[in-house]
Amino acid sequence: MSDHHLVVREHQTIRLAPNGPLSRAAHAAFLARIPMLPSGVLTPVHEGLRTGSHCGLIQADRWTLEILPKIYDLDGPLPDRGALVRMLAVCFDIPVWLDGTASSDLADDLLRVVIRAYLEEAQRQLRQGWIKSYVDQEDRLTRLRGRLNLSEQVRRGRAAAHQLHCVFDELTVDNGFNRVVRAALTLVRPRLPVSSRLAIQADQLDLALADVGQLLPGEALRAQLPHHRLTRRYDRLLLLASWLLRLLSPDVHGGAQEGLGLTFDMNRLFQEIVSMALEAAIRRHPLGSRLRLTRERPMRPLVTDLSGTGRFMMIPDLCLWLDEDLIAILDTKWKRLSPFQDEHKAGIAQSDLYQLLAYGYTYGCNHLTLIYPHHPEMKDWTLPRFSYCSPAGANIALQVAAFDLGASRSAAGQLLNQQIGGLLHAIFQ
Q: What is the structure's pLDDT at 259?
């Protein structure tokens, strides 16, 4: 952790110097950013700041705050940074990270990981060829090309009669897509060590984009680019370019786009990881044609008022269906369980149990699951199973599941089998 790059965890208090790593100037810079960040990313506390459930990078003047997940609770940031990288890779479909990020990259900071992914994806697109677009051009030529701009020709008179003022379409790499890519590259190059592998990659890309015009970072972020099947292959590259423009640009704080950092709500990210992995597991399952997963649907009211209007809508994270029957409700919780503090509760919030009971009773579903991220302390812990005691919760069972982010395929398969194990026995008898 350097004076200008602070590495912290989510839900951590960062104290002011001399009791912590935060200088007065850095504290003031980050305080000024808080109103423009998503709610809960940073909260001012006495003599410091506190992070919330968002992870990623925040830029404030010359300081960078890197917020990592609090999962492994080990010395050094590499395991938690690796977990975040894997989650981003899955959610945003970035195969470079799935192929395995070098430990040296992970050991530096998250920004280096993003830069590496951007450069690798840009080189992949270069090998396929930059996207070309038809752009309107005007020029004075000795032979007709396209159509003649008659009004301009007449305006210039007899002095330019030997030249034709032509308007034509030209297929060129100098278009909005590649200008956005180059704008990100322009910000990246000064940050790379001279003669490093990444610097060499960046120099090669800069040479290949020599015929592409320059855009200011703010202009690049606000660029409205058409999206169709011919440009779909640029989706990853433009996503990574937009991340870098938000992180590194000094001029994107005005206008509609405010580039103050790159942060991710870990609750949403974890829910997305689990749902994507479960959907893939369903496609591989023998009953895949009969199973389906819905996200945050269906919504149902918890109560009705005197007029019969539903109030307090319930939105379960995931619902698993067999044909038209709801067989399980799954709720993801981005919380670190601590089985050695209390193996019976392990930090499971009582409010979460109330929430699941309401789901089970309202939706008429007796198979409920709370899903938490797996970490090493849970390796030899027997995951608890509960049955609700109240008459309203009769026959409603609640199980706790641990989802291993490092082995999402096998974790999803195991989770799916837990949900439909009893049904399989009944179906194949």
A: 42
Q: At what angle do helices 197-208 and 110-128 cross, to 10 degrees?
A: 40
Query: Coil, strand, or helix at residue 262?
Result: strand
- CA 243 – CA 57 distance, rounded (Å): 10
Q: Is 108 left (phi over 0), alpha (psi -120 to 50) or beta?
A: alpha
Half-sphere exposure of 334 (CA within 13 A, CB side): 24
Alpha-carbon span 406 to 79, nearest angstrom: 10
Its sign, for the CA torsion 407, 409, 410, 411, is positive
By the 8 A CB rule, do 67 and 55 touch? yes
How is residue 384 annotated by DSSP? P
Q: Is the peptide bond before 193 cis (omega within 30 degrees of 0)?
A: no
Chain-centroid distance of CA 359 in Å reads 28
**Cis bond leading into 18, ω under 30°?**
yes
Let me know if 119 is exposed, middle or buried by CB neighbors in 10 A (0-12, 13-18, 19+): buried
Q: Do 110 and 57 contact (CB within 8 A), yes or no? A: yes
pLDDT along the chain (429 residues), means of 10: 80 93 93 88 94 91 89 77 87 64 59 89 94 80 76 74 79 91 94 89 95 89 87 93 85 43 90 95 93 94 92 95 94 90 80 93 93 89 86 81 91 93 55
pTM: 0.82
Rounded to whole angstroms, the Cα distance separating 311 from 325 reads 25
Question: Does domain 266-427 match CATH 3.40.1350.10?
Answer: yes
The burial of 353, by beta-carbon neighbours within 10 Å (0-12 exposed, 13-18 middle, 19 or more buried), is given as: middle
Helices marked H in 209-265 — which ranges? 217-222, 235-248
Domain ranges for the chain, please list them: 1-70, 76-132+173-259, 133-172, 266-427
According to the model, what pLDDT value does residue 98 have?
46
Q: Give the list of residues 6+ apart from residue 44 with CB closer than 8 angstroms, or none.
A: 31, 34, 50
**Burial class of residue 379 (count of CB atoms within 10 Å of its CB; 0-12, 13-18, 19+):** exposed
Percent helix / strand / coil, the chain, rounded to 5? 40, 25, 35
Q: State how far Cα 324 lies from the chain centre.
A: 32
Q: What per-residue confidence (pLDDT) applies to 360?
A: 92
